[in-house]
Design brief:
69 residues, mainly alpha
């Protein structure tokens, strides 16, 4: 019985470690580096100046191109 209790405790401890790792990964994925922030700012500026198009526009162009075939 004592071995079973110890095994359960070990598994619970491992689950807690895994949860903490996942929480850390989640938090770190929500933060942009300064380089990523610069890239986002650059992309937004390009879009606002009409130097790029949105994904929706690309999808519409592809759909229209398939209709013309």
């Amino acid at each position: 019985m004592e071995n079973i209790n110890q095994e359960i405790l070990n598994k619970l401890n491992q689950i807690q470690i895994d949860i903490n790792i996942l929480k850390g990964d989640k938090d770190s994925n929500n933060v942009l580096t300064s380089e990523e922030e610069e890239e986002v700012d650059k992309a937004v500026g390009e879009y606002q100046r009409g130097e790029s198009i949105s994904l929706d526009e690309i999808k519409r162009e592809r759909e229209n191109a398939q209709l013309e075939i």
